[in-house]
């Protein structure tokens, strides 16, 4: 797929480290302004019967007596993303919130653990920006509710119109939506066009597959002395690893999520192809931050990452005087890749029907037309509503000027869920998955043996 040269935008390169950590944790102070409110758990609310048949007989919101909704967010804590979230909060509170009687209060949760701590302390926690990988465990640790169990189905159906069905499935566990996809991207291949041209490679054409990507990396290293690719083996929660495995026909979990299956023949093949980049010295790994900085500084010619870093790379290219290009991550054997989702989902824990109504007003705004216009244009994540890219009142001008965003939006229809680890051991499983990738890819360990070793360890956790 050919893309136009990426046009310019502005965001300081100094935010790169903050953006990288934003996918996991970005250091920031607690910006909570109001700690008052009703404490409780989602289980206390139970407006729904076992079938999830929820009805709201009356409007319980009153503009004269507004309800505060506390939304715990790691993005709000980020220097790179916080401004966009502040804009959403201000716009909501001065508009829909004032009209309906709802006050949105973002709470900075830089490490993603403050919400759990405050839940245990009996504090008010209404909405959490959660990592997809841990949603199943959040049912116990945070006491989150399925959307079908706290919001009327007709409300869900009306609001979800225009959102691709596969995107609505990204946060489902046991056939219920425990997380609504919020801020996310698909894996994109960023390219320093000048380094490719120095190596005799046309940067206006994407590599056909991982084999051609490898050949390019060898050619770049020989011609320029720079790394061909920068990619963290652990890549945050492993969402790129998921995509690489899926793209070669492998699975991470079996269909009923009762066992890990990545140590298959196709999984081993995918890792062996990927490992060549590191063992042959044509790729640099490290952490996400280190990989991003290697690309932004010109030490690596290509990088696989989400569009949350897009504006920073544009700024880096402008400052250094090179041309930035971007394409979807390649697949294997000439086939398109299977994209997975990075980023976060919205999870909820209302403690009353009134709170559920207030939370729903917030969700409708932040995942509505105006909310996603802010999220995409100010941060770079995908709009869950692709029609906004064609609407002049929202994202058309922005998308037309930034074709890598357009290419990312085109992948929405093909997105498959990044792994949601089962049960109470999501944190341990996420860590083991990252450790497996690092050991298999960057050490002398045998790939097949390493994948099998970690698969066995992880299955012991799952089967406990």
Automatic annotation (TrEMBL):
<dbReference type="InterPro" id="IPR006059">
    <property type="entry name" value="SBP"/>
</dbReference>
<protein>
    <submittedName>
        <fullName>Multiple sugar transport system substrate-binding protein</fullName>
    </submittedName>
</protein>
<keyword id="KW-0732">Signal</keyword>
<keyword id="KW-0762">Sugar transport</keyword>
<dbReference type="Pfam" id="PF13416">
    <property type="entry name" value="SBP_bac_8"/>
</dbReference>
<dbReference type="InterPro" id="IPR050490">
    <property type="entry name" value="Bact_solute-bd_prot1"/>
</dbReference>
<feature type="signal peptide">
    <location>
        <begin position="1"/>
        <end position="28"/>
    </location>
</feature>
<keyword id="KW-0813">Transport</keyword>
């Amino acid at each position: 797929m050919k893309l136009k040269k990426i046009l310019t935008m502005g965001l300081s390169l100094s935010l790169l480290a903050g953006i990288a950590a934003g996918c996991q944790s970005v250091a920031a102070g607690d910006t909570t302004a109001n700690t008052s409110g009703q404490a409780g758990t989602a289980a206390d609310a139970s407006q729904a019967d076992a079938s999830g048949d929820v009805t709201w007989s009356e409007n319980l919101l009153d503009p004269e007596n507004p309800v505060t909704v506390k939304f715990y967010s790691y993005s709000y804590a980020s220097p790179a993303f916080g401004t966009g979230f502040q804009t959403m909060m201000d716009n909501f509170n001065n508009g829909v919130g004032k009209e309906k009687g709802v006050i949105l209060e973002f709470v900075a949760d830089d490490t993603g653990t403050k919400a759990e701590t405050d839940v245990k302390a009996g504090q008010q926690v209404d909405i959490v920006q959660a990592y997809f990988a841990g949603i199943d465990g959040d049912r116990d640790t945070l006491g989150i509710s399925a959307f079908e169990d706290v919001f009327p189905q007709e409300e869900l159906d009306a609001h979800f119109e225009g959102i691709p069905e596969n995107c609505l499935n990204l946060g489902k566990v046991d056939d219920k939506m425990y997380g609504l996809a919020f801020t996310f991207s698909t894996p994109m291949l960023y390219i320093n066009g000048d380094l490719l041209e120095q190596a005799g490679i046309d940067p206006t054409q994407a590599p056909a597959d991982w084999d051609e990507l490898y050949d390019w990396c060898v050619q770049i290293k020989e011609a320029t002395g720079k790394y061909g690719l920068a990619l963290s083996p652990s890549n945050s929660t492993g969402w790129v690893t998921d995509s690489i495995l899926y793209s070669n026909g492998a699975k991470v979990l079996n269909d009923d999520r009762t066992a890990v299956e990545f140590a298959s023949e196709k999984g081993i093949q995918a890792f062996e192809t990927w490992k060549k980049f590191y063992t042959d010295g044509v790729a640099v790994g490290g952490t996400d931050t280190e990989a991003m900085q290697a690309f932004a500084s010109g030490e690596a010619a290509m990088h696989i990452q989400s569009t949350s870093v897009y504006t920073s790379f544009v700024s880096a290219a402008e400052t250094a005087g090179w041309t930035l290009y971007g394409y979807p991550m390649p697949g294997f054997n000439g086939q398109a890749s299977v994209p997975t989702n990075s980023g976060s989902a919205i999870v909820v824990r209302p403690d009353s029907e009134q709170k559920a109504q207030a939370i729903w007003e917030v969700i409708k705004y932040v995942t509505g037309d105006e909310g996603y216009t802010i999220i995409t244009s100010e941060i770079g994540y995908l709009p869950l509503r692709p029609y906004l890219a064609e609407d002049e009142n929202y994202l058309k001008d922005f998308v037309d000027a930034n074709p890598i965003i357009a290419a990312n939006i085109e992948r929405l229809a093909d997105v498959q869920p990044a792994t949601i680890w089962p049960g109470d051991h999501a944190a341990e499983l996420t860590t083991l998955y990252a450790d497996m990738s690092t050991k298999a890819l960057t050490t002398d360990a045998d790939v097949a043996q390493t994948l099998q070793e970690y698969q066995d360890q992880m299955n012991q956790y799952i089967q406990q």
